[in-house]
Amino acid sequence: MKLTIRDFNLPLKHTFTISYDSRDVQETLIVELQQGQHKGYGEATSNPYYGFTIENMSQALENIQEQIESVDLTTPEEFWAQMQPLLSDNPFALCALDMAANDLFGKIQGKPLYKIWGLEAKDMPLTDYTIGIDTMENMVKKLQECPWPLYKIKLGTPDDVAIVKELRKHTDAVFRVDANCAWGVAETIENSHQLKELGVEFIEQPVKADDMEGMKEVYQRSALPLIADESCITEADVKKCHGHFHGVNVKLVKCGGLTPARRMIAEAKRLGMKVMVGCMTESTVGISAIAQLLPLLDYVDMDGALLLREDIASGVTIDYGKVSFSTENGTGTTLLACV
């Protein structure tokens, strides 16, 4: 097996702002694994909140390049089990590697990954489209620029309810809101009642990630369902979120790839929780990997590539929230020749 590491700067259509971060360009790491004639691709974006950079992800992979290239891929699960102890302190790098291994495995087998898992491309949720924090006028413009059946609205300002009220004047679409840890307990409870009246479906991560006691109170008194994001990083966190959130948002980069993500989804379902998978502004490489999980999900946020000015790969396509699979095997992704 041969490892190739590439990094790209992905310019965004608009400045993307959430409660604790703002960016115009998303840095991303692409991992390529080649075995024989087949190539598999994986991705992990840099993220200052979690402390993972292109440099430390690249270094982590280069440090174990010899071990990676000595493997003859049998199954992605066995490969992940071999690599995880070597990358236990860098789940983002592990994610890119695991994603590439899954893509490669599917291409070797000559099947789309979701079919290898025994899934069918039916009853798949629509993806939302994210409206980042901005002036109210610009948030309305972003919404009008991209008509969509459901939107995720980033909040965490002094005027959050007013923002949703204004956006509601311009569309009948379903709204989801994501405060990214910016609210307090009482504020979340109060907002939930007002937001329910405004056609909001659920609230994602309203309070600080470690305030599980506060979330317990919110869980008991909220008028809307609650989805964990920053509070749910690893496999062990799913059980911790039970009784504090109604569902979990599984992020591939945070948990270390598709392999552990599938286990997290199974655990959440076992506990009777809703399951969402979210993106981290990946290109179509990462988005195509997320798509393989669609038949297992209640909700999905996989609009990352739609937020880019230019993409670096082909793969799944999205039209008005509906995802269509590529004709390629594996995750269905291919790097574009121009990159």
Strand-helix topology:
Layout: E1 2-18, E2 21-35, E3 38-45, H1 54-63, H2 65-69, H3 76-83, H4 91-109, H5 113-116, E4 129-131, H6 136-145, E5 150-154, H7 160-168, E6 174-178, H8 185-197, E7 200-204, H9 212-221, E8 226-228, H10 235-241, E9 247-251, H11 252-255, H12 258-270, E10 274-278, H13 284-291, E11 299-301, E12 313-314, E13 317-319, E14 322-324, E15 334-335
Parallel strand pairs: 4-5, 5-6, 6-7, 7-8, 8-9, 9-10, 10-11
Antiparallel strand pairs: 1-2, 2-3, 12-15, 13-14
Strand order of the largest sheet: 4-5-6-7-8-9-10-11
- The topology string of helices and strands comes to EEEHHHHHEHEHEHEHEHEHHEHEEEEE
Number of strands: 15
Q: What ranges have pLDDT less than 50 throughout 5 or more consecutive residues?
A: none
Shape: globular
Helix content: 25-40%
The end-to-end distance, rounded to whole angstroms, is: 22 Å
Sheet of most strands: 8 strands, parallel
In terms of DSSP E residues, the strand content is: 15-25%
Based on secondary structure, the structural category is alpha/beta
Query: How many DSSP helices?
Result: 13
Oligomeric status:
single chain
Provide the residue-averaged pLDDT.
97
**Rg result:** 19 Å
